[in-house]
Design brief:
With 359 residues, the chain is an alpha+beta fold. It has three domains: 94 residues, no CATH class; 133 residues, Jelly Rolls, CATH 2.60.120.10; 111 residues, Cathepsin B, Chain A (Alpha-Beta Complex). 30% of the residues lie in helices and 33% in strands. The chain contains ten helices and 18 strands. The strands form three sheets. Strands 1, 2, 3, 4, 5 and 6 form a six-stranded antiparallel beta sheet that branches. A hairpin with a 2-residue loop joins strand 16 and strand 17. The N and C termini lie far apart (68 Å).
């Protein structure tokens, strides 16, 4: 009796030491049941373990037991079982005629259920209901990268948002590793949120599986799910707080630089996150621009004949010019009202630039 290749998928994981959610085990070969005084089951089945992973003999035996029980996978409409090793830390599922298509959107109902269970394991999606996640699934793709490959390169334009499902990657700047990311970590969001080039390279140190959302769909996702806007706002603040530590001392005594090296969005966020007070003066293509910050809050913006939010949005799109930060404000300016929520202003400005409202 012959049977086609079938796929078992790991659908639950409670800290299994060998495998991760989404890992697939492929079974193919031939099987023969010999009838006699004793039933004997002969098999030439081959089980393909996820690439780069060790073999768990207990799990292999569990998968083979399914074949023995039913005499062939063609007889099994659906099968879900716990691994009997390590006190049953993982659960695997076989669905008849299920096909695995790497790097393709998950659109079928049976795959949507699996993807929903998978996504609820990660902090980024825990603010969403299962109904919300099901709406999100069609926008997601899954892809594997081999060890040594580069997912993102420093200086590249913003592309996609990535969520690590399994494996590890190094965060690198100028061939120096500044961090390591693993399961559940997110990257690519800063470039998408503020429209700047990628700030660090992401290199795979262990074979990695990621979910990703195309950059063109990222803004749609934020508009669909306000709770994700809050999640990314907090994440952005945390990331920038770390990367801006070195700039803090420079801003305390004043700073001069080029926008080509420090884009407006990064300058504004540095001042905001570090609660700086002072005047940021920029020499731009259409003249001088001034922005006033009080303890990180934006209280004034002027560029050419524009003031307030309109001036802020215009400044945000500039790429060339010079800037100077002068600490301190007059007592009168210290009492001025803020222009609005800083993160909203920043994200609204980026949205307008992306959608061509600012030219």
């Amino acid at each position: 009796m012959s049977f086609p290749e079938v796929i078992f998928t790991l659908i639950e994981d409670s800290d299994c030491p060998l495998y991760d959610l989404g890992d697939e085990f492929r079974l193919s070969g031939k099987a023969l049941l010999l009838e006699g005084d004793e039933k004997k089951f002969l098999s030439s089945a081959v089980i393909k373990i996820p690439h780069g992973k060790a073999v768990c003999r207990i799990l292999v035996s569990d998968i083979m037991a399914v074949l023995i029980e039913y005499g062939g996978m063609g007889n099994v409409p659906k099968y879900v079982t716990n691994c009997t090793g390590c006190t049953g830390l993982i659960k695997i599922e076989y669905s008849k005629n299920r096909k695995s298509v790497p790097s393709m959107p998950v659109r079928r109902d049976k795959d949507t259920g699996f993807a929903t269970r998978l996504l609820t394991k990660f902090p980024i999606f825990q603010t969403l209901t299962q109904t919300d996640i099901k709406k999100l699934v069609p926008m997601l793709k899954m892809k594997k990268f081999p060890k040594g490959s580069t997912i993102m390169k420093k200086g590249d334009p913003a592309s996609n948002l990535f969520i690590i499902i399994s494996g590890k990657a190094e965060v690198m700047v100028d061939d120096t590793t500044i961090g390591v990311m693993g399961r559940g970590d997110v990257f690519g969001e800063i470039s998408l949120l503020i429209g700047t080039p990628v700030g660090a390279s992401i290199k795979v140190s262990e074979i990695i599986t990621v979910l990703f959302i195309y950059g063109k769909d990222f803004k749609k996702v934020l508009n669909m799910f306000p709770s994700l806007q809050m999640y990314f706002a907090r994440l952005l603040a945390q990331r920038l707080a770390k990367t801006n530590v070195e700039r803090l001392e420079e801003f305390s005594s004043g700073m001069i630089g080029k926008l080509s090296e420090n884009p407006p969005s990064e300058l504004f966020q540095t001042l905001n996150l570090n609660h700086k007070t002072g005047i940021l003066t920029l020499t731009l293509s259409n003249g001088i621009a001034d922005l006033m910050f009080r303890e990180g809050a934006l209280i004034s913006s002027r560029y050419g004949n524009k003031e307030g939010k309109d001036a802020f949005f215009e400044i945000l799109k500039e790429k060339d010019g010079r800037f100077k930060f002068t600490p301190g404000l007059s007592p009168q300016k210290m009492k001025a009202p803020v222009m609005g929520d800083f993160m909203w202003l920043l994200m609204e400005g980026v949205r307008r630039i992306d959608e061509g409202e600012l030219r």
